[in-house]
């Protein structure tokens, strides 16, 4: 980035506001720098300190919050610049973003070539795009507006903007779910089975953005996940696998920023989903990946036609990068397991690995099926025998022993928390469970505090087809604060989650 033209400096302090990946600077309304540069609220500015620079969004604040001659930084901006006591920052206009002309071209229906996508993704990864610019890019690419070559070039651009791992041998196993189904926390179980079989599976996972829990959130209730690259390598070399939060490794920094904007907008962008998933698999060094795609009326993928389109795109893009890929259609008509929320899902995972009587059978069966397919896909097991091998590794305790060993190598295994407040929701009539709304279940779990409060969420007591009697608990809401419990029940009054009716 260029040096600022004006050298007027400002004292800097931390505002203590979390803005995730977007950098924000707060300046006094009457600040001399604001006046001389002509800055207004939402201006994009270049901030420099001791040879480091970031591009941030300006928020103008009232005099009571800041003194003249000082500026404040959001938490993310503070971490990026890391000021020392007494440091002063310089602020000037941000450089022009030439790549925005390519975004505007896409808005008007033009194709984006590899060079254009490289430029856009490079600027996104550098933090040069505010949320509005990212939203414009995502909107321009959504709804089937990206063809196959554009999707391949987008994947390649995301790879180029981050780091890539090389494990020096093959196969390197991987498993991923496209999401949209509460619970379904098969990944920790699959990794434990695969590594117990002697294969290498360095699993990187994401945190939740708008869902009640991501795999990294679930694992973090039991062991540290924010490992750096060298720590990750040591764990994998020792145990064959790991459970690491991908955000700590900078494997696909542009994708993390795109997802932050994409998920709340709920955009239909298969190209972005494919590029997001596959760029992270390739960057993590995977050679063989099984992709779980749940299909159901309230899942992310709702129809067989949508599944076939997504499957074809995943396979074609993976082929362009020599990634061996197997796409698996799974049942997405209802949640998997009992828990929805980090700690509750962790308890389900532990119950399956420990072969406890209370273990949710549907989670165990699905995890074993996916592990069996991955064992066969990597050439470890003969065709048709993978599920038997996976089940044997689970039943024998080998998978549980491997899970404990990986957690110990990452910093130790601890018991997930239990929520302080729990309140059941009871059936209002006799009948059969005819429908479960996965999206609304996820919404209630979030209103109850998940994932920020790891023990919060929702515990299911019924499945589709179960007979229930009036007064029986259908599910229990878990929360750490009364206010969040009230939020969840306010929503439940207007949005029924489980349909109980006649069996006819």
TrEMBL record:
The keyword Transferase applies. It catalyses: thymidine + phosphate = 2-deoxy-alpha-D-ribose 1-phosphate + thymine. GO terms for cellular component: cytosol. SUPFAM superfamilies: Nucleoside phosphorylase/phosphoribosyltransferase catalytic domain, Nucleoside phosphorylase/phosphoribosyltransferase N-terminal domain, Pyrimidine nucleoside phosphorylase C-terminal domain. Residues 432-499 form the Pyrimidine nucleoside phosphorylase C-terminal domain. It comes from the Bacteria. Signal peptide: none annotated. The keyword Glycosyltransferase applies. SMART domains: PYNP_C (SM00941). GO terms for molecular function: 1,4-alpha-oligoglucan phosphorylase activity; thymidine phosphorylase activity. GO terms for biological process: pyrimidine nucleobase metabolic process; pyrimidine nucleoside metabolic process. Keywords: Glycosyltransferase, Transferase. Belongs to the thymidine/pyrimidine-nucleoside phosphorylase family. Type 2 subfamily. This is Putative thymidine phosphorylase.
């Amino acid at each position: 980035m260029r040096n600022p033209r004006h050298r007027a400096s400002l004292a800097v302090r931390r505002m203590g506001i979390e803005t995730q990946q977007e950098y924000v600077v707060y300046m006094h309304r009457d600040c001399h720098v604001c006046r001389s540069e002509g800055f207004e609220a939402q201006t994009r500015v270049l901030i420099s300190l001791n040879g480091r620079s970031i591009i941030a969004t300006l928020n103008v604040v009232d005099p009571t919050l800041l003194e003249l001659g000082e500026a404040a930084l959001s938490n993310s901006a503070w971490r990026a610049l890391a000021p020392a006591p007494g440091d002063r920052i310089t602020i000037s206009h941000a450089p022009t973003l030439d790549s925005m002309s390519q975004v505007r071209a896409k808005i008007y229906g033009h194709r984006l070539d590899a060079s254009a996508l490289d430029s856009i993704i490079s600027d996104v990864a550098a933090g040069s795009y505010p949320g509005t610019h990212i939203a414009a890019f995502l909107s321009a690419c959504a709804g089937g507006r990206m063809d196959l070559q554009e999707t391949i070039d987008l994947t390649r651009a995301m790879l180029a903007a981050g780091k890539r791992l090389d494990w020096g041998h093959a196969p390197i196993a991987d498993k991923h779910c496209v999401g949209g189904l509460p619970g379904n926390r098969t990944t920790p179980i699959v990794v434990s089975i695969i590594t117990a079989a002697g294969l290498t599976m360095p699993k990187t996972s994401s945190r939740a953005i708008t869902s009640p829990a991501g795999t990294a959130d679930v694992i973090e209730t039991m062991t540290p996940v924010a490992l750096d690259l060298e720590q990750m390598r040591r764990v994998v070399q020792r145990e064959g696998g790991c459970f690491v939060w991908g955000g700590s490794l900078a494997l696909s920094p542009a994708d993390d920023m795109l997802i932050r904007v994409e998920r709340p907008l709920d955009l239909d962008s298969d190209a972005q989903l494919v590029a997001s998933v596959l760029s992270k698999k390739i960057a993590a060094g995977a050679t063989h990946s099984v992709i779980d795609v749940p299909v159901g009326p309230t899942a992310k993928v709702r129809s067989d036609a949508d599944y076939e389109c997504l499957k074809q795109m995943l396979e074609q893009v993976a082929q362009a990068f020599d990634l061996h890929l197997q796409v698996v259609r799974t049942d997405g008509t209802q949640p998997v397991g009992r828990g929805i929320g980090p700690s509750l899902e962790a308890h389900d995972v532990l119950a399956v690995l420990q072969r406890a009587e209370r273990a949710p059978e549907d989670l165990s069966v699905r995890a074993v099926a996916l592990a069996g397919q991955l064992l066969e896909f990597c050439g470890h097991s003969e065709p048709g025998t993978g599920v038997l091998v996976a089940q044997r590794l689970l039943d024998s305790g080998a998978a549980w022993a491997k899970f404990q060993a990986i957690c110990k190598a990452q910093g130790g295994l601890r018991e997930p928390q239990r929520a302080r407040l729990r309140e059941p929701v009871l059936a209002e009539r006799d009948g059969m469970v005819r429908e479960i709304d996965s999206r609304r279940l996820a919404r209630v779990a979030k209103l109850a505090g998940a994932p920020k409060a790891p023990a919060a969420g929702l515990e299911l007591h019924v499945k589709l087809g179960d007979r229930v009697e009036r007064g029986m608990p259908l599910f229990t809401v878990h929360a750490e604060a009364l206010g969040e419990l009230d939020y969840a029940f306010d929503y439940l009054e207007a949005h029924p989650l489980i349909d109980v009716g006649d069996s006819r």
